[in-house]
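Sanity check record (used in CI):
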Amino acid sequence: MIKKATSAAAAAAATALLLTACTGGPSDSTGGAGDDPVAGGTVHMLQNADFSYLDPARGFDGGVNAFYRLIYRGLTMQAAGDAEDPNAIVPDLAESLGTASEDGLTWTYTLKDGLKFDNGDPITAAEVEFGISRAWDPEIGIGSPWLKQTVDAPEDYAGPYQSGDHPGIETPDEHTIVFHLIEPFPEFDNVLAQPNAVPFPVGSGAGDEFINDVIASGPYTLDTYTPGSLIKLVRNEHWDADTDDVRKAYPDAWEFEIGLEAATIDERLLAGQGTDVNAIAGKIQAATLPRVQTPELQDRLIASPAFCTTYMGMNTTKAPFDQVEVRQAVNYALDRASIQTASGGTQLADPATTIIPTAVSGHKDFDLYPSEDYAGDPAKALELLAEVGLEDGFSFVLDIRAQPSMQAQAEAVQEALKAINVEVELNVIDTSTYYETIGTPSQQSDAAITGWCPDWASSASTMVPPLVDGRLITEKGNTNLAQLDDAAVNARIDEIKAIADLAEANVQWGEFDEEVMALAPMAPLVLEKGLFLPGANIAGYHPSTSMTDLAIIGLKDPSQG
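Expected output for ABC transporter substrate-binding protein:
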């Protein structure tokens, strides 16, 4: 029987999965085999592509964000996947969540005692301010955009290396950090749970210093890094479990084996030999599904629902996607049933017609571009193209990741659009640099296939606005792939953000989703579910299609493998 992941999806308002709330660390565990993780041993992660960046100011995707949780800490963090409320934001380096001023423009945090980096140096307010201010560096700060969107800073502030201390962050003493916001933002605790809101020693991390090295504040630190091949983490001896109520840090070490073919990963997990009994990986491939029907493998198999939407963003600054009729025509023409098949079939994907997934708070069920059995409506699409003189079609370049499943999706798009005389040229980009490439408007092609997950689970505010707010278009780290800059859309975002009632705001975000899809800056493709096959000796594993919880994973018996 396939097990369902006990993650944020199990909650009614689930979105991004994160990590486990507990007291104590590995010392609280006892040895011996069983269903619960115990201290010791090495967990292996088998993966196709390298992480985008070890530096959290640069990286920002589900895989690397999960990795960051092992080596970095912030003032706050999202609770564990097996916590009573896995969507909650909880204190991490801070003693408590933030205290907001009456006008909501000032947030104050107090650091815990006894915090240290992996070199033994203390973590004080100065290091927190410095690390967070790196998000403003024009070259390094290409990760999560939320700090720059909420914390007040002059337009010409360019981070600590060029501009010095951050003018919007005060450190009146070693334990106190005060943030001044651009405008009230009730979800600011969530902002500080983002991966780039972490401390670093003052003066460190300039240029490419953190490309191949790290300065850790979490339970693990970097032992070995061979780009494209191997990352080995070992315990950070200066991490104090008494200061960390979330990370359990059971294993003595982690080894990330990189550059493996997806089929090879599945074969190794199916066989479960040697150290692979202690291994985890991403979703199994569609081709592997028929081979996991035996009772033994079914017992290991874990299902996770879709937290993210796979979509094709269309660059509205480039012809012919600067015309709404063309974008609407593409939405009508796409054979989402075929894309579902390319994504692994009904067990691994559902057709998507909205931006907000069904599992996410604020989802509204609608389909503005319907077709029978989701197979597409080329006739309606051709009518729209005829309105703008493009009934003979056009051609465009589609950016895709160098992964078999993504290429299969792109080929399904390519085939469907032939029916409306549209030729699609595929531009295949290495996975490790994909997000940076498509997030740099000067390097972006006409369209791109990617996925989007909510950055936190308390509201739908992080699901649609980052994809369409014209004021957020940046030279690097851009999330608005459509480069849509519509005054009415921007104003509507501000209107909903001002709603104090979270439940009402979520209703409005659902309405906003439909309003955006009328403009069709993107084409939702599928909601990708996941089936995961951990090694037989893995425990505490709660996989997610958004971000898997690594900090609570351990081994049943560290002597195996």
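The chain has 15 helices and 22 strands. If this sentence no longer matches the regenerated tokens, the check is flagged for review.
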